[in-house]
Fold these 4 entries.
Entry 1:
Amino acid sequence: MAADDSTGVAQEPAWLASDPGARVQIMEGRVATLESTHGRDSVEALSARNELAMAYNGIGEVQKALTVLEENSKRFRETVGDSLETLTAETNLAVAYHSGGRLAEATALLERTLPKLVEIAGPHAVTTLAAQNNLASLLRSLGDTDRAIALLQDTVEGYEQALGKLHPDTLAARNNLASVHLAKGDLEKALNLSEKASEGYRAVLGEGHPDTLRALNNLAVIYGRAGQPDKAVGLHKAVLDERRSQQGDTHSDVVRAVNNLAKSYLQSGKSDKALGVLKESLAAMNRENLEGDEEKLPTRLRILAILLQLNRKEELISFYQGEFSEDKISRLGLEGHAAMLAAGGLIFALAGRGAEGATFLERSADLVDGKPNLPTKGGLLEQMLSLVEQTILNKPAKQVAESKIRGGLNAT
């Protein structure tokens, strides 16, 4: 008879869910205690290390997670054979492979593990359903949306039977199913599923829980895609307000929420409002002297894009000179430095200052000329024009920029 591990699990406090670093510290202490009291290779210590590895994965330390999980999977198999603990460790290893971009290895591992989980734990056991959910996410990443949808529909039904319709795991699977339907272009199904998931999260976890906020963000994205920008704006504003109340003005989650709201404003044709919220966010980061350009850069680039769309040439140049000074862009690494110099060239060209734009582009090309694994000087122009076309320009603007840049290059 299949083992049943389908009992519900108590949810973490919201503060812990929103602080992955705290989770890691707690898990490291627990691992040390269990290794001391039960032994390093005990099932208890191995299971705790498994959880610690997933916490590492959650804060982006994927290689550290992989190192722990690969060793753990091997030790579990040596210690307890083809057991539920071993299969759970291998399922977690597949998740870390996925996080590390090793999709083929992750998929192959889950394809091997899932039938064994069905046999040992049962088709509707939580461990089995979690593995099935993870495999569906991989299939979606690989473009196999039809199979992903079939797996997720079965997963949602399984969670409903095992845990109930409002359990967070059920809601997460329903949200994942909505995202796959969205990827396939079935907006009606995606919207229906996302609305149900969001309502469930609000009822079970409350408005301010991180999972609720993620679900509401996803729903807002679907509203935007479905041609309902006002609803998207309303939800993105609600998510931003809640995140600000919990995390302040400059947390990375808040910065992303600001950018999402700006996108919704742009979809609804409210470029000035988009520009306003982005400038407000950037000003907050500048007031706190945050020099983490990985947080500031998306906001800066989006402001550039809007100024380009609004054709505010002088403001565009002033903003570029203030926020993309040589001192600042030199901290973006060689490729980032070169890219932002090239972007400056395009900006000056579009403002009618082609000769200055050409100077920026030549400086950019000189930075990467002869460097391994970077575009050659001769190929940089085409690459940067293509990149900027995809990110901040439309095709007509690209053609104008190309003409003016080439004219400036010929004049120097």
Entry 2:
Amino acid sequence: MDRIKEQFTLNKNVTDSQLKEAGFVKGIYRTNLHKDLIFLKITIEDNEWWTYQILNNDKHNTLYIPYYNRLTGKNELVDKFDKKLYKIFTHLTAQGIFERVNNA
């Protein structure tokens, strides 16, 4: 299950100025998660749909597969990402971009 989407949902009343103030550019938020090698990308479209991805910072911005394939065993970097993601989404919630899901 997607732990972030279980805990956070998009605030449907978010404005373009709120997005811009929070660091979104044309509906995209990007921040490094690990040095300059791996980053988080959040995409919001028309205040209706949103997604996030953990990507390698290579010329193709490929998915960071260990984050999505957790069957390979314990990965301390992935555990750090989970904590960082929670902090980032909590911060964006305080800015009115997201809302906490009930019972999360």
Entry 3:
Amino acid sequence: MGLGHGDFKRLERSIWPHLSGIRSLYLSLQVLDDFGSRHERLANSLPTALAETSLVHLSISIHMRTPPDPVDSDRGILSEECAEELSRFTHSRDVLPRGLVAALPTLRVFMIRHTVHTREELAEAEHIADHEDNDANEDELDCLRRDADRAELVLRQIASELPRPERWWWVERTGGSAEMVEIWREDGEEARDIIEDRDFNRETGLDGFFSRKRVYEQ
């Protein structure tokens, strides 16, 4: 689904009340251009929208918007877009998981998959900057090259901070406290399959599942 301004409120009123009893949910979110600089809305509002459910498993795929065509962009826009992407990524990486755990007391395992821009997606900018038939003057070409260099630095920062585009988390709940533990993908998928089994028991179905060997280590 595509998400723009006000969409989460509409979802709270229309869809979520009908999903209150489900235990497993898959969401594929396309962050639209008109989401603008309010990318923190995703990390802050989605947990609130899901709070009325009783999910035990949740999988979220977040698809980011495509960088603008550098041919039609103003000076500096390429690096600004990448900086915006870094901020958007940071919110979905750090703020969203904590918000989900706090808002959904029944949540035990969840996955967040990030679609982030690769170095190859911005290679066209360098191609344009270096192409001998480019109509831009030398100053404009230098600006494009600098933008491409800055963009590459931002993308490398994202890559270094994102060890896995798909990350699985186990939520260990004791009393009123909750601890997030990153687990291996295979273990997350195993827990998801247990939860989706027709005979799954919310109270005891995951007893004994978690152990230290399931903790993800780089």
Entry 4:
Amino acid sequence: MDATEQVLALLELRFADLERQVVGGKKPVARRSGSVCEDLLTADCNVSAVLSGHESIGAVARRLEQLDRFLDPTFEETCGPRDVEAKAEAVLAALPQLEREGRMLEQLREQMPALDSRELTDVVRLTARLEKLTVGVLESKESLDEVSVKVAALLQRYNDVVASVEEMFGRWDDALTRIEYSRIARKDVE
């Protein structure tokens, strides 16, 4: 037996012992093949085959080691130069957003004189006056609405009177036309 086979045999024994400790006096877990190492190799091949078609899962799987390191409770104690590189990567990844926010901050600085203008500082002082004017406008609107209703009623009455006058003039015109035709007919008869 060479050294590799001895290591594998030793691992097999450890797995079998671990299995006995976990399962206890129960019947040992049945395996499809005879070797735990072969089962692990098969499982690894199956997981790799599943991940091969899903790039996003593969990206997560590649970062699992880093995630485990960040989730380690002793992470802060073990920070070293590599962590500085990770922080630098994080800053570089956020660089476009930082630049965009910097441009927005610069635009805000350019517009600060407009925000500090007298007109904007007078807003607080003029707010009470604006409220009084708003109340006055609302009262005027209410009274004008009442006047508008009255004017609309008067216009309707006016239209009714004009319509009755037109009707009366129409009747008079018909009556006068009949009288004139009757006079003309009498003159023709005479």
